[in-house]
């Protein structure tokens, strides 16, 4: 069973994965699992999740501000115009993940993101369709109950790949859905659990 711990500064029980430091705890408290309908925020998280592939989210979180500087504050239009010279600069940037494949995929994904916005009027309208525009609540009392994929993440990954997105698999999509509040699966003992439990599925 997951170990219940408290932060020294308060008496709130939290998911034990966020107790590494204040950065992780604040991310858990203020952002993770909170339903987001802001296109810019949704796009930023999508790009960051693609960089996480094969790494820990904590690694990405520590480099988040560097990623923002590297990718024009996640301005999709500016990112879509980045070319080989920009890629070479980023490959020399120790503040981010220096993977050519992931950098190129971020630029590629920005272009396809813009296509989706043009088609659906917003990325929010497109991406939330995979959960029927509701938050899916998944009860979790211990680590063995944590789901790494769902039929919804499968469908999202399949459609994004069909639209040309790269470094997008079902596991990445599931992590993304958790991050932007499309899925709520705080541990049952977590103080955020009831606040985000909007629907049982």
Can you offer a commentary on this structure?
The chain is mostly helical and 201 residues long. The protein has one domain (14-196): Endonuclease III, domain 1, CATH 1.10.340. Helices cover 50% and strands 4% of the residues. The chain has 11 helices and 4 strands, in the order ββααααααααβααβα. The strands form 2 sheets. A two-stranded antiparallel sheet has the order 1-2. It has a two-stranded parallel sheet with strand order 3-4. α2 (39-52) packs antiparallel against α7. The longest helix has 21 residues, at 100-120. The two termini are 23 Å apart.
In short:
With 201 residues, the chain is mostly helical.
| Sheet with the most strands: spatial strand order | 1-2
User: What share of residues are in beta strands?
Assistant: under 5%
CATH superfamily: Hypothetical protein, domain 2
Total domains: 1
As for the CATH topology, it is Endonuclease III, domain 1
Taken from the alpha-carbon principal axes, the silhouette is globular
User: Could you tell me the radius of gyration in angstroms?
Assistant: 17 Å
- The CATH class name reads Mainly Alpha
CATH arch. level architecture: Orthogonal Bundle
Rounded mean pLDDT is 92
Biggest sheet statistics: 2 strands, antiparallel
